[in-house]
């Protein structure tokens, strides 16, 4: 088990990291991030400091340099073992050296070693990376600066150890500023942290700056949500090659980044699937007992997850199959294998869900996944896997590889809960599993995001995806990104490609994506100019190189133990050439100018990362009680039930409600009032179901994302009854509840 948050003290020793400055530049949906870390050795001995920190899982780290006094040293990318040897040699000969490397277990953890910092000396380290911003459910683009590296649960014998301390004791400060520009106006920028007001830099509002307000505490990731007017237009950006690079090489040729937002016909979108095998995999490790950041009633991650499972189970279509697994150090499942969805199986599952606590110890996700994949698929019921975790695992690459191996038999939808969820794990599982990833942090509610993914899962799968290029005959194309395996309505798909050969200034290219949706062949086409964009630097090249590096790394892991045909050598060559880090390379900088040898024994310091000491102790106690006595520790007292969830909990699997005192209570009426208002000849279940729908439409429109699917199920049940007196029921229900919802709004 790892060092848990706050269990190691600072022992009153000075920590050399003094401050972090972050500058973010966003151009449309691509971000360039420059972080400057300022160190100072206040001890009387030379120091080696090691700082382990998170970066977004798909970031391309492309620059690393150090400034000591007036001397600037720019790091080079070298093969990892060579870089480590060079670092050790430099330290043993008394030189200053800096080493930046990606963790072998997970591409979103980096460690920075600052070697031989003499007493009283300061060093400033600059780190630059580029990344794409993910599209959110509401159309916003999400940037996340991970401020929290939660200790990752690792199976015994795994790698890097992380020390963390309570956020209140973190001895360094953070300043953060962002500049946003786009061809379209910026409508707003939101954050889970306090921001200074948005400053527009021009009258058409296509450029703006924003800063983190003073006094930021290291208790959370810094998340920005950027909204553009008329976002989601397909675009292509061509970037010229580097003049100094070899023609025909990736860095010497032009590279194009194509962003596509497929639009599907409305007729197909309105026909939700009525089949499928839905497998829900829920994290019940100790850290799921942490409070949600937004919680007014101290709602915990696990209680929010229970509410989400209630909504999911009520929204499933009749005729589908389902099962629920939960995991910690071990795993459990409700049914031995997936069962058909009915009133009986739904009730049985909900009884178990209500008892779920965060009491299963560590976060061992690999074994339950292996078990799920070992179950035979059910004919004509496409498997849809929903994974909920706070993402604190150490064997990220192994988990993602397992999802990829099984990608032909399922779609994987993943949810990262809370601060510090591994973006590499959550995004990687969804990407390799042809699904969609969502992050639930800050003031987010879990339910609307999960229900959006259920809508995606109920959409017909897009198959036979192909991409064709139409370019001038003197230009050839090499696609750098992996093939597109999934398309969802309104969600962005990115393609990177290298363009070799010269073309005239006015030349145009065209890219066509063809696919089949519910048996209908469709296509989306984008014409674009081959003229390179101004001033994008090498951002597109670096993202293209990163896409190719990640694909090759995965290929190398799949081929491990076989003759891999030099895949690792290809990655190293590409990484060195593009200056983008990989799992086989590292950045190394040695100060060869400091002629005076640094004297004295070298002291090693691990710099703590912010954590939360409060949850760890209770987690350990709860888990210990569970393992020693074999029973869950007592559940904390439950806050009063949310009225919406109360009403939803009463719905039957078929979509209808029963007329009973519990329904009257949920609607805020007496049983007598509800009975008395019923039109005389109306069927009581029809009356009850119409009342529930009227209440949802009349009083809970702000949460429509959460109940829309189960309301559609209720409306289709009503239509199937072909019941008389529906209009009278709607009129009488409006009078009883004091609202004025039209019959058409209910889908009747």
From TrEMBL:
<dbReference type="InterPro" id="IPR013694">
    <property type="entry name" value="VIT"/>
</dbReference>
<dbReference type="InterPro" id="IPR036465">
    <property type="entry name" value="vWFA_dom_sf"/>
</dbReference>
<feature type="domain" description="VWFA">
    <location>
        <begin position="277"/>
        <end position="454"/>
    </location>
</feature>
<dbReference type="InterPro" id="IPR002035">
    <property type="entry name" value="VWF_A"/>
</dbReference>
<protein>
    <recommendedName>
        <fullName>VIT domain-containing protein</fullName>
    </recommendedName>
</protein>
<feature type="domain" description="VIT">
    <location>
        <begin position="1"/>
        <end position="131"/>
    </location>
</feature>
<dbReference type="Pfam" id="PF13768">
    <property type="entry name" value="VWA_3"/>
</dbReference>
<dbReference type="Pfam" id="PF08487">
    <property type="entry name" value="VIT"/>
</dbReference>
């Amino acid at each position: 088990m790892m060092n848990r948050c706050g269990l190691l003290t600072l022992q009153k020793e000075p920590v050399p990291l003094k401050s972090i400055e972050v500058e973010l530049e966003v151009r449309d949906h691509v971000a360039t991030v420059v972080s400057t870390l300022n160190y100072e050795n206040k001890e009387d001995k030379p120091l080696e400091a090691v700082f382990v920190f998170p970066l977004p899982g798909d970031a391309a780290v492309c620059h690393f340099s150090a400034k000591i006094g007036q001397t600037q040293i720019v790091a080079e990318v070298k093969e990892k073992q060579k870089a480590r040897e060079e670092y050790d040699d430099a330290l043993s000969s008394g030189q200053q050296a800096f080493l930046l490397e990606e963790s072998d277990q997970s591409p979103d953890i980096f460690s920075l070693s600052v070697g031989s910092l003499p007493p009283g000396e300061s060093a400033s380290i600059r780190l630059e990376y580029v990344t794409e911003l993910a599209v959110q459910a509401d159309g916003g683009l999400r940037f996340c600066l991970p401020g929290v590296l939660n200790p990752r649960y690792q199976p015994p014998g795994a790698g890097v150890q992380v020390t963390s301390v309570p956020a209140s004791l973190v001895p360094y400060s953070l300043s953060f500023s962002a500049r946003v520009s786009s061809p379209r106006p910026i409508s707003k920028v939101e954050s889970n942290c306090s921001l200074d007001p948005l400053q527009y830099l021009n009258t058409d509002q296509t450029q703006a700056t924003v800063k983190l307000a003073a006094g930021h505490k290291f208790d959370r990731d810094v998340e920005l949500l950027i909204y553009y007017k008329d976002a989601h237009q397909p675009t292509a950006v061509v970037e010229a090659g580097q003049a100094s690079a070899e023609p025909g090489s990736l860095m010497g040729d032009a590279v194009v980044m194509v962003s596509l937002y497929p639009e599907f016909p409305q007729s197909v979108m309105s026909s939700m699937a009525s089949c499928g095998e839905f497998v829900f995999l829920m994290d019940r490790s100790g850290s799921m007992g942490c409070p949600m950041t937004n919680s007014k009633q101290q709602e915990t991650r696990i209680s929010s997850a229970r509410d989400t499972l209630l909504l999911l189970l009520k929204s499933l279509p009749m005729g589908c199959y389902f099962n629920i697994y939960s995991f910690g150090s071990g795993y459990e499942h409700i049914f031995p294998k997936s069962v058909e969805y009915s009133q009986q199986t739904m009730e049985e599952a909900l009884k178990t869900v209500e008892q779920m606590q965060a009491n299963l110890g560590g976060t061992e996700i690999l074994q339950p996944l292996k078990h799920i994949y070992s179950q035979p698929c059910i004919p004509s019921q496409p498997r849809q896997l929903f994974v909920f975790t706070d993402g604190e695992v150490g064997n990220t690459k192994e988990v993602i590889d397992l999802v990829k191996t099984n990608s032909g038999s399922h779609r994987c939808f993943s949810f990262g809960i809370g601060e510090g969820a591994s973006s590499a794990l959550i995004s990687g599982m969804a990407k390799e599993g042809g699904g969609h990833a969502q992050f639930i942090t800050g003031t987010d509610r879990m339910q609307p995001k999960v229900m959006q993914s259920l809508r995606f899962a109920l959409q017909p799968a897009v198959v036979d995806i192909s991409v064709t290029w139409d370019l001038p005959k003197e230009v050839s194309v090499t696609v750098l990104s992996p093939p597109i395996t999934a398309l969802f309505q309104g969600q962005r798909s990115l393609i990177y490609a290298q363009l070799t050969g010269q073309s005239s200034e006015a030349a145009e290219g065209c890219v066509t994506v063809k696919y089949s949706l519910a048996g209908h062949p469709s296509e989306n086409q984008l014409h674009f100019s081959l003229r390179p964009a101004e001033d994008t630097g090498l951002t597109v090249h670096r993202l293209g190189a990163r896409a190719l590096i990640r694909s090759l790394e995965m290929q190398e892991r799949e081929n491990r133990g076989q003759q891999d045909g030099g895949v690792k050598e290809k990655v190293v060559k590409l990484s060195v050439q593009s200056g983008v880090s990989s799992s086989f390379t590292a950045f190394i900088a040695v100060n060869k100018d400091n002629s005076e040898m640094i004297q004295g024994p070298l002291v090693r310091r691990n710099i703590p990362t912010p954590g939360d000491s409060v949850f760890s102790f209770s987690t350990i106690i709860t888990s210990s009680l569970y393992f020693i006595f074999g029973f869950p520790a007592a559940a904390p007292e439950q806050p009063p039930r949310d009225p919406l969830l109360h009403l939803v909990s009463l719905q039957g699997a078929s979509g209808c409600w029963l007329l009973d005192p519990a329904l009257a209570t949920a609607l805020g009426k007496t049983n007598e009032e509800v009975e008395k208002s019923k039109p005389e000849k109306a069927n009581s279940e029809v009356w009850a179901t119409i009342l529930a729908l009227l209440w949802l439409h009349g009083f809970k429109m702000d949460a429509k994302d959460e109940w829309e699917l189960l309301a559609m199920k209720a409306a289709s049940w009503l239509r199937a009854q072909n019941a008389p007196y529906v209009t009278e029921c709607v009129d009488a229900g409006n009078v009883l509840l004091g609202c004025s919802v039209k019959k058409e709004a209910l889908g009747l």
